[in-house]
Design a protein that fits this description.
heterodimer, A: 297 residues, mainly alpha, two-stranded antiparallel ribbon, 72% helix, globular, B: 303 residues, MetI-like fold, 2 domains, 0% strand
């Protein structure tokens, strides 16, 4: 018994703040959230048990829920591949044959640091507005622009562009990954007369697969969680015509505008399950296309 | 002279000829490629920072020029956008900056203390359940904030903390952001274990080792964590939006949002001016600590 304490005391003392946080800010809330998702709860009176009522309403009647899913999936489907492609492309340009990459790297990374801020969201609203700078550039080449944000058909792509603009952080991770690929592989391929494209397909992609996989999982999760930019650009409502009704924006409004806390909890759980499913899918399929070098036998 | 040697070798030996040809071809191609690359990267750089330049330019332009003129250089510099923008809202930006500073400084301290504690336990101490809890910690990193949002709100409401800074600050003292723990664990693991063992033989307690061995050797990791948490807390919008109702206690991001609520068409210059100012702290830290930031991402592989 004494030995047990001697072995464990120090560890748990240092872990205490995290443990408290874990139980009160993560595990507890997840369970409470699950319970609330089966209730109707307006924060004034106590929660009323409603069984599967919230979920049934959500899947059978709630058009805005389906709209929010559509908007969010569209955003994920466009922004994640585009952002990763930009990140990988630029990382490969920076990786080889340039001596001074510091300045470029800094400039490309900067938007990732600023992109989540309100200031940038406000800027985006005005840049893509009817009189915004985007239309002025288009006018120079003879194209008549429109209010990209006020048009429900295009509004979401302004946020996709904003997401692409922030390709800097996955770019840095790709750069670190590219550094890890042995140079002699390329030299050997060069001597064999392998084309650049083939080198990319046969060397870079397979060697980088673990890093690509890692970035893909991380960026997909991040994309599902997008909130601030959509919230600011749509003025908190998901307008125009719910075309910017990101899932998180819908959830926020249900919870903190209409105080349907039970329903919002159900929405939150569905989001959690979607993200978990995507992560699981990525891990389950990874063995078909990700090969870790030290796994070779 | 030297070229002669190569030429002779090339004539004498077909293999050398091949090698030489490949090298020459490669060199020429590399040079052209490098030029093209630089050209492309310069253009891309311009596209990337153009929005920021436009923001700064618009913050200095007269109102009627912001949306009418593509050029970045204002016809006259309207510094009044800054001076008037500072006081354009019902409460002065002096108050908002003070609020943001309080929240940010306390949050950074909380993050550094609590996360380095947890990271030390995970990286260095042996105790039952360590791998189990480490796994849990990694899972919480994936957790969307929106899932815990409502119960947390109910909890803080019950505690009477809504409309105070406590819901923004206390979680940081409880190591709520797993990213920083992970970053520090990665770093702590690189510190040679012999140092701890030597200290332990000298009779140092685990706390002494943490304080006198691990922390001093981890200043780069601490710096990286401090900068990231500073920038993220400074830009944080959702939590203040939910927990702060009184304009007097607003942080800078909440204040900026008030500009679009009162959209009196004429305040764009002021809105942009205050937006620029809100980014200045981030920019300063980025320029000053760029190396730490970039290395931090490379070692943790995140964000």
């Amino acid at each position: 018994m004494r030995k047990f304490f001697r072995r464990n005391t120090a560890g748990y003392v240092f872990l205490t703040p995290w443990l408290v946080g874990f139980f009160f800010l993560a595990l507890g809330p997840i369970l409470v959230s699950l319970y609330l998702s089966f209730t109707r709860y307006d924060m004034v009176s106590a929660p009323v048990w409603d069984g599967l009522g919230n979920y049934r309403y959500m899947f059978e009647y709630d058009r805005r829920f389906w709209k929010a899913l559509e908007v969010t999936f569209t955003f994920v489907a466009f922004s994640v591949p585009l952002r990763l492609a930009a990140a990988l492309g630029v990382a490969m340009l920076l990786d080889k044959g340039l001596r001074t990459i510091g300045v470029y790297r800094a400039i490309f990374y900067l938007p990732s640091l600023l992109g989540a801020s309100i200031a940038i969201a406000l800027l985006w609203r005005e840049m893509f507005g009817l009189n915004g700078v985007i239309n002025q550039v288009l006018a120079m080449v003879g194209i008549t622009g429109k209010g990209w944000i006020t048009d429900p058909d295009t509004s979401i792509y302004t946020i996709v562009v904003l997401a692409m603009w922030q390709f800097g952080s996955p770019m840095l991770i790709f750069l670190a990954g590219l550094r890890g690929i042995p140079r002699d592989l390329y030299e050997a391929a060069e001597i064999d007369g392998t084309s650049r494209f083939r080198q990319f397909r046969r060397i870079t992609l397979p060697m980088l697969a673990p890093v690509i996989f890692f970035n893909l999982v991380l960026q997909t999760i991040e994309a599902f969680k997008t909130f601030t930019s959509a919230f600011i650009i749509s003025n908190g409502t998901g307008a125009p015509a719910d075309s910017l009704l990101f899932y998180t924006v819908y959830l926020f409004n249900e919870a903190f505008k209409f105080f349907r806390m039970g329903y919002a909890s159900a929405l939150a759980w569905v989001l959690l399950l979607i993200i978990a499913a995507f992560t699981a899918l990525a891990f389950a399929t990874s063995k078909y296309w990700v090969h870790y070098e030290n796994e070779r036998d | 002279m030297k070229t002669n040697v190569i030429e002779q070798a090339v004539i004498a030996d077909p293999d050398a000829r091949l090698a030489h040809e490949i090298k020459e071809r490669q060199r020429a191609r590399d040079k052209r490629a490098r030029l093209l690359k630089h050209l492309f990267l310069v253009i891309l750089s311009f596209v990337m920072i153009y929005p920021l330049l436009w923001l700064v330019a618009s913050s200095l332009k007269p109102e009627n020029e912001i949306f009418g003129d593509l050029g970045l250089w204002p016809s006259s510099f309207e510094w009044s956008n800054y001076t008037e923008g500072w006081n354009a809202l019902p409460v002065s930006f002096t108050v908002f900056y003070k609020n943001s500073a309080i929240v940010t400084v306390l949050s950074v301290i909380g993050n550094l203390l609590s996360c380095s504690f947890a990271a030390y336990a995970f990286a260095r101490l042996r105790f039952d359940g360590r791998t189990f809890f480490f796994g849990l910690m990694m899972m919480t990193m994936m957790l969307p904030y929106h899932v815990v949002l409502i119960p947390q709100y109910v909890l803080f409401l019950e505690l009477g903390w809504v409309d105070t800074y406590l819901p923004l600050i206390v979680p940081r003292f409880l190591a709520a952001d797993g990213f920083f723990i992970f970053l520090m664990v990665q770093f702590f693991r690189q510190i040679p274990r012999e140092l701890d063992e030597a200290a332990m033989i000298d009779g140092c307690s685990p706390f002494k080792i943490y304080w006198a061995v691990i922390l001093p050797l981890s200043l780069p990791a601490m710096g990286t964590a401090a900068i990231f948490s500073l920038i993220w807390v400074w830009e944080d919008f959702l939590a203040p939006l939910i927990y702060l109702n009184d304009v007097q206690s607003y942080t800078v991001p909440l204040a900026l949002r008030m500009f679009i609520d009162q959209e009196g068409q004429s305040a764009f210059g002021q809105m942009f001016a205050m937006s620029v100012l809100s980014l200045v702290p981030v920019l300063i830290f980025f320029v000053a600590f760029q190396k730490l930031i970039i290395r931090g991402i490379a070692t943790s592989g995140m964000k």
